[in-house]
Amino acid sequence: MSAFAVTFRRELALMWAGGGALAPLGYFLGATMLVPLAMGPDRTLLEAAGPPLVWIAAALSILATLERLFQADLEDGSLDQMLLSPAPLELISFAKGAALWVAIGLPITLAGVPAAIALQAPVERLGYIAASLALGTAAFIGVGLAGAAVTASVKRGGVLLALIVLPLFAPPIIFGASVASGEEVSAALSILAGCALGGAALGPIAAAAALRLQAE
Amino acid sequence: MFAFLANPARFMVFSAWAAPVLFAGALILFAAGAPWALFYSPADYQMGETVRIMYVHVPAAWWSMGAYAFMAGASFVGLVWRHVLADVAARAAAPVGAVFAAVCLVTGSLWGAPTWGTWWEWDGRMTSMLVLFVTYLGYIALWSSIEDEEKAARLAAILCLVGAINLPIVKFSVDWWSTLHQPASIMRSGGSAISGEMLGPLLTLGGAYLLLFGALTLMNMRSAIYRRRVNSAELKKARQ
Q1: 20 to 30 A from B58, CA-CA: which of A10, A166, B65, B128?
Q2: A66 within 8 A of A147, measured Cβ to Cβ
Q3: Which GO terms describe its biological process (chain B) (predicted)?
Q4: Of B134, B146, B154, the CB nearest to A163
Q5: What angle do CA B158, B161, B165 make, to 5 degrees?
Q6: DSSP symbols for A103-150
């Protein structure tokens, strides 16, 4: 089996075994549930603010999963095994990111549709919202890989990780929310796809460079 | 010149006189530019006297971005050529750039209140400056949370370069929003749109900020190098 497939399956198995995919999904749904409680159930208000808040919830639930992404590997020695493997660390990081997207990005995308409906998003725009969430979570994970790798050896690095990663989340949030609000949808979707591809290409490279230092 | 200064000992000799010279130059330019800007330049026909905030605000905006560009360059050199002084330089510039960004945000807010009637508006330039400020904070926090200095330098350099890719994207993406801030008026095709009487003090203060940045960065670098020497001396002593 190739290194990509091995890492991908290992990550998925670890996430399912730890209930890892359920926790961020619950976080996502819980956060969106709090929105109408905080804002009041006023329909016009929710129509305007609901879909962007789905984006905030998605960004935060991805952020919550990033802290342990490489830290666990560093602590239990898996990272040393990855460094010894003949496969490039960039490919292994990419596989970890891809597994994270399948385990968490995809469920959030699927859960985002009913969440958006509950927050009074117009039904005809749901397809765009789902597509933008799929691309946006990929972009979050791409830049998140770099942030998680850079802070992997910092104990209780969660706050630091948030400080580092949240500014990097800015471009996908901007275009994702503009898809959700229905402005210039196709242009925003293409740029969102650009963010996702850029993150998928550069995130693993930056993460691998940072991980090589962590293991020294 | 950079290869010559790459030696820390030579750098210390050079910076021992370069830092005070830059500092004195900054003082002279401030002494010349500040009264010129605050008393002898014309008030704006629309904004009145509040236009004088510009002389504090605009140079801070320029050099907070300039400082990040400098850090990105130094981080690249540090990563590629494993250069100790480049790491020290990137770290030394960060607090100065962060303070410039904060000055830019605060003065911009003070300027916005009388001219736009709002303390804060989520327009493109302000938002991207805020993201720049938060990026600085993350960079500084990463540096100080990793004990091993060499490792911290490499990781911070990676973060700095990732941020250097992110910031222009943020800049362009927030420009999509309806923009309240005036567009660039000095560097634009067709010549500067700002009157010469205002451009003079603005450029003088821009020079003053640049020299101040250079002086503070050099001083920060010197104190970082001294700290290293103290650490290694203490290590040596502890081993005996």
Answers
A1: A166
A2: yes
A3: cytochrome complex assembly
A4: B134
A5: 140
A6: IIIHHHHHHHHHHHHHTT--GGGHHHHHHHHHHHHHHHHHHHHHHHHH
Q: What's the complex ipTM? A: 0.82
The closest CB to that of B154, out of A171, A195, A213, belongs to A213
Q: What is the 3-state secondary structure (H, E, C) of chain B?
A: CHHHHCCHHHHHHHHHHHHHHHHHHHHHHHHHHHHHHHHHCCCECCCEHHHHHHHHHHHHHHHHHHHHHHHHHHHHHHHHHCCHHHHHHHHHHHHHHHHHHHHHHHHHHHHHHHHCCCCCCCCHHHHHHHHHHHHHHHHHHHHHHCCCHHHHHHHHHHHHHHHHHHHHHHHHHHCCCCCCCCCCCCCCCCCCCCCHHHHHHHHHHHHHHHHHHHHHHHHHHHHHHHHHHHHHHHHHHHHC
Give the chain A residue whose CA is nearest to the CA of B132.
A167
Entry pTM: 0.85
Mutation target among B144, B173, B177 for the A interface, most CBs of A within 10 A:
B173
Q: pLDDT tens per residue, chain A (216 residues)?
A: 688 888 888 888 888 776 667 778 888 888 888 878 887 778 888 877 778 888 889 999 999 888 888 888 888 888 888 888 888 889 999 999 999 999 888 989 988 888 888 887 777 788 888 899 999 999 999 999 999 999 988 887 888 999 999 999 988 888 888 887 776 778 888 888 988 999 999 999 999 999 888 876
